[in-house]
């Protein structure tokens, strides 16, 4: 069998061409950037050991396993993060939250103290640390498995993020921050979209009947963890912006606003804790 034949079989099995190319490169133990090499060598024979690896990868992809888990990494905000089923795969939409955080950290506030709640792979915390080296960045997660992944990413990237184990703000008792960011679980239990996410950790996805349980807890606790004038930014579902803004306003945050992602969907909402109360 040639490489061209192998690609044809993978696409015939239901994979799109890009996925098929990426899996074939993985099976050949080549860089994912070698797609041009594949085209130049499509008449090369596929060795038996590579064929076995490809068959396994195709079966896993057919079962819906994310490409990032198969590859073992995902790019986020220009960083190459290692990921596996212990953490959610970082999504491009979450870069909207990072952009907003970086805009706030551009203000003349000195060495700001930043907290990422529910860090998972460490994506948000590490992106902020890479772009704002003067900031002190901390991150929490209730999952020791997730923290292991995040610490590994921080070590490989050489970024000094402080990690804390625990549930939301309980992980950093008594500490106060200029900026708190979070991409918490926000999918409602029973949401039909969960059927396509069975390979990712369910506890990092769902939050009660309306998907807002964890956001409510974060908003309620944030005033005690923010310095006067500090900000809280939260990623949420495509239809939750109004509800999250209402939670922020009723708690006392002002001003409160939302930001849209590249698809013009209100993806994040946030507010500032007043200088004086």
Quick overview:
This protein has 277 residues and is of the alpha/beta class. The chain contains ten helices and nine strands.
Description:
This protein is α/β, with parallel strands linked by helices. It has two domains: 3-63, no CATH class; 74-272, Vaccinia Virus protein VP39 (Rossmann fold). 38% of the residues lie in helices and 19% in strands. It has ten helices and nine strands. It has a seven-stranded mixed β-sheet, sandwiched between helices. It has a two-stranded antiparallel ribbon with strand order 1-2. Helix 9 links the parallel strand 6 and strand 7. Helix 1 (3-12) packs across helix 2 (17-27), helix 6 (95-105) runs parallel beside helix 7 and helix 9 (213-225) packs parallel to helix 10. The chain starts with a helix and ends in a 5-residue tail after the last strand.
CATH superfamily of the largest domain, called what?
Vaccinia Virus protein VP39
Q: If strands are numbered along the chain, what order do they take across the biggest sheet?
A: 5-4-3-6-7-9-8
The average pLDDT is: 90
**Could you list the spans in which at least 5 consecutive residues all have pLDDT below 50?**
none
